[in-house]
Amino acid sequence: MTPRVSRGFNALTALTALTATLAATGAHAADGKLLLTGGVSSIDGAAGGGLTPWAVTGSYATSGEVGGTAFLTGVKTGDYALRTFGVAVSWEDRFELSLARQDLDTRDNLAPLGLPGLHLKQDILGAKLRVAGDAVLDADTWMPQVAIGLEHKMTHAGALGPTLFGPLGASRSGTDVYVSATKLFLAPGILVNGTLRATKANQNGLLGFGGAQGRGYQLKPEISVAKLLSSRVAVGAEFRAKPDNLNRSVLGEGALKENAWFDVFVAWAPTKQVSLTAAYVDLGRIAPAVQPRRQTGAYLSAQLAF
Q1: Which of 270, 174, 166, 161 is nearest to 212 (CA)?
Q2: Which residue from 46, 115, 118, 221 puts its CA 20 to 30 A from 25's CA?
Q3: Domain 3-305 top-level CATH class
Q4: Is-contact 171 210, C-beta < 8 A?
């Protein structure tokens, strides 16, 4: 294990311990928020949908409270499997700090590059600050809740590193910056979120940042829409646009082409402490598979809130 990986695990362990302490001591959020209005844990660790952050903060912490969440997510497509887990702490529905680790199992799909069984991993440190508005519509304001956030990512590419960070020109680390606006209209039970992300990440950072086409930051939109079927169940869909820095590379035109992500999900909160999310996902092309095809499949995530 390299020192950088060790530091990532140490930070994750520390935040996990803090989250566990909140649960053990009772110094945690009360019942101030409605079910599901804190969103779920995204694959990057921030509160929101499964694929994209929202302007909300995780847990049910409100004024004067501290809350925490922990999550585990698995995504299985035709050729790949992604596992991600992490924790987050939020203060007074104002600030959120999160940590997550992702592990993409490429199986034998990089065998043409001499890399069978490769795992691509990354550590993600996130921070989010609510700056204005209220996510839940009331008589006082129609203004959505607005938050700014960042996600600093460190890629661990294993045996692919010499190629990825050499001829392909990607960087080992990068920082996404985003602004999100979220509003829940209670009468129809509709939640809408829009996120604008400045990013250089390739495949969310699992293939590094920037690269062959030498592009800097690009602004990419992300959209979520959800319908509350009841106080405990929501269904919805998400779209996340992504850059395409490695499309033209030494591996050939289109070899590492990147597509937008899309999902259709259902989220269920049997209690305020537990939520489960299942989804159909379309991640487009990810990397040179044995038989290149769009990567569609299943998404399942569990979250505990304190």
Answers
A1: 166
A2: 46
A3: mainly beta
A4: yes
Q: Select from 199, 182, 171, 303 the least CA-distant residue to 260.
A: 199
Q: Residue 151: pLDDT above 80?
A: yes
Residues 6+ apart with CB under 8 A from 67: 22, 28, 29, 57, 58, 59, 60, 61, 89, 90, 305, 306
Tell me if residue 23 falls in helix, strand or coil.
Answer: helix
Residue type at position 208? G
Judge whether 261 and 279 are in contact, CB under 8 Å: no
CB 86 within 8 A of CB 40: no
**Measuring CA to CA, how many Å separate 207 from each of 4, 137, 211, 239?**
17, 40, 10, 20
Q: Where are the alpha helices (DSSP H) in 59-207?
A: 161-164
Q: Are 284 and 298 in contact (CB under 8 A)?
A: no
Contacts of 211 (CB under 8 A, 6+ apart): 168, 169, 170, 202, 245, 246, 249
- Residue 120: which residues within 8 A CB-CB, separation 6 or more? 103, 104, 106, 155, 156, 157, 158, 160, 206, 207
The radius of gyration of the chain's CA atoms, rounded to the nearest angstrom, is: 19
Tens-digit pLDDT profile for residues 71-118: 999 999 988 999 999 999 999 889 999 999 999 999 888 787 788 899
As a whole number, the mean pLDDT across the chain is 85
User: Closest by alpha carbon to 169, among 236, 216, 232?
Assistant: 216
